[in-house]
Amino acid sequence: MTSKQDLDFATLFRPGIRATRAYTPGKPIEEVQRELGLESVVKLASNENPEGPLPAVLEAVTEAAQQLNRYPDAACHTLTHKLAEHLDVTPESIILGNGSNEVIDILIRALVSPGENVIYSERSFIVYGLTTCAHFECGRPVALGDDDRHDLPAMAAAVNDKTKLVIVCNPNNPTGTYNTAEEFTALLEALPARVIVAVDEAYYEYVTASDYPQVLPLMKAHPNLVVLRTFSKIHSLAGLRVGFGVGHPALIGELHKTREPFNVNMLAQVAAMACLENWHEVAGRRDRNRAELDRLAADLAELGLDVVPSQTNFILVRSEGPAAELSQELLKLGVIVRPMAAFGMDERALRISVGTRPENERCLVALKEILGR
Q1: Is the peptide bond before 171 cis (omega within 30 degrees of 0)?
Q2: 19-57 per-residue burial string, b: 16 or more CB within 10 A, e: under 16
Q3: Burial class (CB within 10 angstroms; exposed 0-12, middle 13-18, buried 19+) of 309
């Protein structure tokens, strides 16, 4: 008999859990400063909005913090109704989550049984692979196109009688690319109605392309659609984690059965409501990001890096050598970026978030020094 001290805990878990790699976050700024003895560090690795929360959001959170001894509204009643009014949908069409990550997990957990599958693109949001592996190893990734965009026809062709869900990240993380309205409509027409199509639009508010698909209006003709969005990005609530899904009320009603009680905390709810009340700020944030992204992309290309056109708040570049080595050299100079090997990208791929003008300048100066050696 095996002694308790010799117990191999991994053997107690399902194969999908044993095969799953835990998500590896980037190091916090304070830890990098301590390890490398740096006075200051800029973080351009996590696609965060460098502008920070709006003053109205901070005011709402500060006031709500006086009630932290109380549980949050488990139904997110007020936020759900405000969001429904903003999106011109019924409250029954909305499910809120601890970030849109949780809504992705709820979809997979609620829809997929052993032997069934989920289609998504390789070199897309890393959570799709992690979550599907943990849920009965149900993921069936499809190769990204040579243009760093989703190959939607190939994804449609991969669907079989066991497919329950297709996930499209648009714009895509980590490439920043997007699929057009025409391409997306063709995908919907190619898929059977029984297959749920989840469109992850975490970077929706940053998009400026005129041919980008507006998915919410398509739900009337395609009730198998679910749109996922978040307050983490352009609204600067990454630290509070609040996202949502919008879909047919009957579908959303089933998803609510697997949603954890109190999954969106009190501060996140009031912060998101303040964002909705100050939606007029979004256009300025989008335009400022676009201007800085275009400038940063041009400067990165001038340094000899291969720049992928982006519709987000980050840029994917490819260097001549390994991105992991380049990111380590940048780290020594106090600039945190993200090599993309964990996302399944080639070893030359590096993702750089758009920061403030001084942060971007520091990154460019550091890259110029490293590449010029």
Answers
A1: yes
A2: ebeeeeeebebeebeeeeeeeebbbbbebbbbbebbeeb
A3: middle
List pLDDT tens digits, range 315-338: 999 999 999 999 999 999 999 999
Helices (H) and strands (E) in the chain, counts: 13, 13
Residue 171 burial (CB count, 10 A): 25
* Alpha-carbon separation of residue 142 from 122, 137, 159, 212, 346 (angstroms): 6, 15, 10, 22, 16
Q: Do domains 8-52+282-371 and 55-278 have the same CATH topology?
A: no
Q: Please state the domain extents for the chain.
A: 8-52+282-371, 55-278
Pairing of strands 117-121, 163-169: parallel
Q: How many CB atoms lie within 10 A of CB 330?
A: 24
Cα–Cα distance measured from residue 256 to residue 252, given in angstroms and rounded to the nearest whole number: 6
Buried b (16+ CB within 10 A) or exposed e, 263-287: bbbbbbbbbbbbbeeeeeeeeebbe
Looking at beta carbons, which pairs linking 290-294 to residues 24 or more positions away fall under 8 Å?
290/206, 290/208, 292/354, 292/356, 292/357, 292/360, 293/354
Q: How far apart are CA 352 and CA 43, in angstroms?
A: 9
- Return the DSSP state at 260: P
CA 256 from chain center: how many Å?
A: 21
CB proximity list for 30: less than 8 A, separation 6 or greater: none
Determine if the pTM surpasses 0.70: yes
User: What residue type is assigned to position 60 of the chain?
Assistant: A
**Phi/psi of residue 226, each to 5°?**
-135, 130
17-63: pLDDT as tens digits? 777 777 677 667 787 777 778 888 899 999 999 999 999 999 999 99
Q: What's 8-52+282-371's CATH class?
A: alpha beta
User: Under a CB-based contact definition with an 8 Å cutoff, are residues 92 and 247 in contact?
Assistant: no
CATH of domain 55-278: 3.40.640.10
Helix (H, G, I), strand (E, B) or coil at 264: coil
H/E segment holding residue 63: helix 55-64
